[in-house]
Structure formats: C-alpha cells, structure tokens
Design a protein that fits this description.
Layout (H helix, E strand, L loop, with lengths): L14 H16 L4 E2 L24 H4 L8 H12 L8 E4 L2 H11 L5 E4 L4 H9 L4 E4 L2 H6 L8 E4 L8 E2 L2 H13 L3 E5 L3 H4 L6 H5 L5 E6 H4 L8 E4 L3 H15 L4 H12 L1 H27 L12 E2 L3 E4 L3 H6 L2 E2 L1 E2 L15 E4 L4 H7 L2
C-alpha cells in the first residue's frame, strides 16, 4: 500500500518539548522528582484569578459569537492603555492566538530577502521560517547591525530583549537608537520581547516610542507577563497599512477570531482593580525569586558571566556553566545552549539555558 504524499517543511520537532518528555520518562522510571528548568513559563507563582473570574459574564453575547477578526475592542483599548499609554490608533492592533501564532502570521505576511536572527535565538524562529519558506541569517552584535544598516535594506531583523535564551537586557536608549537606524534604512524590525513586561514598571514608554516607526512590527504575548500561557493570546502592532491589510486576511483564515474567553479574561486583568492587583502581585513575586535565584547562581560561580558584560541578567532565563548532561545528573532539566545557535555549537557545548522563574526555595534545594 502506498503512503500519503506529504509536504515536508524541513522544520524539526521542538527539542525543548522533547527534553520535557524525556524528563517525564525518567520520573516514571526512577520515582524521583526532576526540576524542569528546561521550560519557558514563569512558575514562581500562579496569577490569582479568584477575584477576576466572577467579573466575567459567561452568558454574554460576547462570549458566544465569533470574536472580531482583529480582536475585541475592549481588549485593544486595554492593550493601548497598558502598553502604549493610550497613544496609538487601535485599529493597528491585531490580537493573535499567542506569541508563536503572531510570529507565524508575521513571517507569512512580510516579503523580505532574509530575516536576521541574533547569534543565540529561540529555536522556534527557525522552524516557523522554514514552514513559511523564509530565509534567515545571523547577526552577532547590535553594533554590527547599526554599522551595516544601509546594506540590510530589503531584509528584516528580529530583536528579543531580554533575550531568549541568554536572558540579558540592554539599555533602552541604545535599542531605540538602533531601531531608528534600521527603520530609516528600510529594514523591517520584528520586536519580539514577551519577557519585558514582567520587569517594566507602569507607565513604561518604550513601546510608545517603538510604535511610531513605520518599519517596526511589535509582537507580544500575555503568556509571560501575567502568567497566562495556557490561554494562547497575544497581539501584533504595526502602523504600515499594507502589512495590516494582508495580516488581517492571514489572521482570518488562520484563526477566524481568537478565543473569546481568553480575550475577555485578559481585558479584565488589564482594566479592573482586581485584575491589576493580581497582575502586580504576580510580577512582584516572580521578580523577587528570579533575583534571588540569580544571586544564588552567582555565589556558586555557576552563572556564565561572559554573556552579561555589557548587559544585565534580567529575563526568565540565564546561562549556567554546566552541560545539560551534568545538570541531569542532579535531576535538573535544562536545554544545552548549543540548541540555540548555528555558529557556536562547539564553543558552548558545556553550557546550558535554565529557566530561573521558579520558586527560590526549590531551586536552592536542587543546586545544593
């Protein structure tokens, strides 16, 4: 019997997911508990939804009909207020089914020669681009990008700050200067920084500044900033009319509207006193334990300090001076840094990325 004819994209199954499945097998075989620092979800605490869910009318027409293709008006207004201080045109916001869906829609919509990724990058970028037949290349520093901005015309540059996998944060003004240089040279900038909102304070004006650039596409997710990865919801912002027109078509036939409950839930978190209180407390506890975990790793000389000379470790990840196999011996799940680079695999073979957005007491116990 002949097999089905299949379109092979060349994309690979996620190594991070595969590691998680391996840890599950080891737990079943040994009966021991493994610390799963391979994952990228903040798990210091859960956001407390107990006072927010009662605010939602599950019998309302909003909950029962197809949501608007670009997102519910109430949520877009909340995004405008929370992320852009009420300064943007809300029709330029498109709600997506999470950050990965947003990136997929961006890669499906833009027409560029290549997308340039940082030296160390989230592996899903590559696989999403393979699925969408988008070529990619590597940049090694922000200085390199700025110096060569004119020669990058017709391409796109992806920036993630704080970075995944490194977890390093650069100075905002330097980043804005870089984005302006790229924008002015007709280079598309894809700004994908789902970890920033965990650490930024209310009234942060960074996205407000980004929103004025015609060649900037902002991709955001609520998975990290308010701990709602399970709801699969994010958004895309651009002021380019042609991009938004084609994006709307792609979103329609990909999603036909994003889950109504997820949109209403996020709207309530962003706008109600109860929701804002819960979000602030979620971030406060998360930041507190992340800072304690970084300090512990530094005291034990485990933090790979070479990655933080001109930046600070502030994201939910850091790089440690142990291999994936070494950490596994101590029942700690991680992802070898070699998974996150095309150019430095041998050089970083003894380093690993770990998620440090976990309870300090638990991390401390495993790193004894």
């Amino acid at each position: 019997m002949s097999s089905m004819r299949i379109k092979h994209s060349g994309a690979k199954y996620s190594a991070i997911v595969g590691i998680g499945e391996r840890l599950k097998e080891l737990e079943l075989e040994s009966g021991d508990k493994y610390l799963r620092l391979n994952r990228g979800v903040p798990s210091v605490t859960n956001i407390d939804l107990s006072e927010i869910v009662p605010l939602i009318d599950f019998d309302s027409p909003r909950m029962k009909v197809y949501p608007p293709n670009s997102g519910m008006d109430g949520l877009k207004t909340a995004i405008n207020s929370t992320y852009f201080n009420g300064t943007i045109y809300e029709d330029n916001i498109h709600v997506s089914a999470g950050g990965m869906n947003a990136l997929d829609m961006v890669f499906k919509t833009i027409d560029v020669d290549k997308v340039f990724l940082p030296e160390f990058y989230w592996g899903a970028y590559i696989n999403l681009m393979k699925i969408n037949s988008v070529e990619n290349s590597t940049y090694f520093s922000f200085d390199e990008l700025k110096e060569n901005a004119a020669s990058l015309k017709g391409n796109a540059v992806l920036i993630c700050d704080p970075n995944n996998p490194i977890g390093n944060k650069y100075e905002d003004q330097m980043l804005l200067d870089l984005v302006k240089e790229l924008n002015d040279n007709d280079v598309i900038v894809i700004w994908d920084s789902p970890y920033r909102k965990i650490f930024s304070k209310d009234g942060d004006i960074f996205y407000e500044h980004l929103s004025v650039f015609k060649n900037v596409i902002i991709v955001e997710s609520f998975s990290k900033s308010i701990g709602l990865s399970g709801q699969r919801i994010g958004f895309i912002h651009s002021i380019d009319t042609d991009f938004n027109t084609e994006l709307s078509i792609n979103l329609l036939y990909q999603n036909n509207g994003v889950n109504a409950f997820a949109q209403i839930l996020v709207e309530k978190i962003l706008t109600s006193p109860q929701g804002q209180k819960a979000a602030i407390e979620f971030r406060r506890k998360t930041i507190s334990d992340i800072n304690k975990n970084i300090e512990l790793l530094r005291k034990k000389n485990l933090l790979a300090e070479e990655f933080y000379h001109d930046s600070i470790p502030i994201g939910i990840f850091v790089i440690v001076k142990r291999s994936e196999a070494q950490l596994l011996e101590s029942k700690i799940g991680s992802v070898g840094l070699s998974y996150f680079t095309k150019t430095e695999k041998e050089k970083v073979s003894n380093l690993s990325r770990i998620c440090i957005a976990v309870p300090h007491s638990i991390l401390k116990e495993y790193f004894k």
